[in-house]
Amino acid sequence: MRSFRFYLAWTWCLIKTNPAKTIAAIALIAAAPFLNGIPDIVEYKRVDYRYEKDGREFYVIQSIEKNEEKFEARAYDKGNPPEIKNGRIVERRWNDANIVLFLVAGAAAIMIAVGIFAKDEDISFDLRKVFSMSASRFVECELEDGSYFYFLDGRLLGKSDRELHREYDYLCRHFSVSSRSKLASFPKWKTKNARRGEKLDNLGI
User: Fold this and answer.
1) Exposed/middle/buried for residue 133 (C-beta within 10 Å: 0-12, 13-18, 19+)
2) Are 170 and 133 contacting, i.e. CB atoms less than 8 angstroms apart?
3) What contacts 170, CB < 8 A, 6 or more positions away?
4) pTM exceeds 0.85 for this model
């Protein structure tokens, strides 16, 4: 039971059982490449006047806010002058969108971590249920001598005098099959019809 079909079913059941955590995982994957990757905001402010005093350089810059001209004096050390292009001071500041991305990625990472390490089924990924749901799709039933025999991966899960598919959504959960190790504890067994068919196949009949 290691086929592509099983892993596809397992993935679908994982998503179906954990929709919120799935969204968190998608959000984390989508945000990760852009963390601290959004370019800084660049503003250009025209230099109206420049002078030196006490070993420092002062720039009077002009800006327009709400359709009004405003002037502001900025002081810089000579050893650390501002970046100037075409008579304008270039100011760079961190884009706040990076903060939003960090918050989204952080919240998503916390949700995923809690789902991995929590023991409470209500907040964990509940991988036992996911395995039972996905593996139940591959349970086979054979009718012999009025009894229904249920098999998974060549192992006998149990038998019943009635058809259990109509009573249980997840047969594996009914038989307490919640992992591969649990499945390995069930005996390998074949019905008489299966053994007879195998002998005929070996004989080429």
Assistant:
1) buried
2) yes
3) 132, 133, 136
4) no
- The alpha helices in the chain, defined as continuous H runs, are 4-17, 19-31, 97-117, 127-135, 171-174, 180-184, 192-202
- Indicate the length of the chain as a whole number: 205
- Local confidence band at 110 (pLDDT 50, 70, 90 cut-offs): very high
Handedness of CA 72, 77, 81, 86 (dihedral sign): positive
Instruction: Please check the confidence at residue 101 and state whether its pLDDT lies above 80.
Output: yes
Give me the pLDDT at residue 177, please.
Answer: 93
Cα dihedral sign, 12-180-170-166: positive
The answer to whether the CB of 20 falls within 8 A of the CB of 110 is no
Cβ atoms of 48 and 62 closer than 8 Å: yes
CB-count burial class (<10 Å; 0-12, 13-18, 19+) for 14? buried
* DSSP 8-state assignment for residue 202: H
